[in-house]
Amino acid sequence: MKFATYRMGDAAKVGLVDAEGERLFDLDAAARRAGAPSAPFASMLSLVDADEVGLDLARSLVDRRGGEADLWRDLEQVEFLAPLPEPRQMRDAMSFALHIRQSSRGARAVQALRATGVEAFKAVMREPLEDLPAVYRELPIYYITNRLTVVGTGAAVRWPRYSQVMDYELEIAIVTRRTRANIPKQEAGAHIFGYTIFNDFSARDRQAAEMQGRLGPAKGKSFDGSNALGPWIVTPDELGDPQTLNVEVRVNGETRARGDTREMLFSFEEILAYASQDETIHAGEVFGSGTVGNCCGLEIGRFLESGDAIELIVDRIGALRNTVLRSD
What we know:
328 residues; alpha+beta; 19 strands
């Protein structure tokens, strides 16, 4: 199943997207019409908390009421919000070796750009890649990012005034279910509610400056709209293996990168098990995979301009679309 959060009037509602990705089913209205509990559809967090009860109810409502045309809306008529507008926590890993190696070189190039100029940037980008630091193969490390800056597909992201170098990052993200600590790897799959696309917008010049202090990325990745999620959440039974997804980045309709998720250093189950060591992971958290190799401007030396339209496309999930606009 695919679950979306969308706007109807002044309210945010939860809907189910059909298999063809063409229509959306109003779960709350269907529940009320059927005399069934509507509380699981009050918000996406409510549905996550309802767990199997909520999922079974959603299936039942589509089976029983799916033939009623007035409960469906064409997607073109829907204003989508982030599928999980305010996660309970948000973490981002680094699971792709090519991205880690290329972004390390890219970060040095941005520092050279800040210090000397464009030619220095180009010179660094021609340097050979460094070896992958061993820690990335030993531990599924991550950082905690800002759960309060989430936007959805279609949102215009305001370029922070303190930055001149704006970038995108294509990632896959999971939403957790079932609150628990010390989750065994072999049981971690049962704690995944679903998958969505994550654009980890980044102010590269500020990030490069901050991370010289070996702490961050702070304002490099924390500004209004910096975490875009969407267009919806796909349940594991519908998605299948998340490490067999082909991905594509388009900017203004031009393909900037293609890649896939086959080279993840750690699976989502391994990341989740690691994070839960002596720490309770709550239902409704978001974990990012880290950027798929080649799928950010830092790796290829091409950044965003004000007004650019960014489209992140992932097999079996859909497309996350945003624009970036300068604030001044």
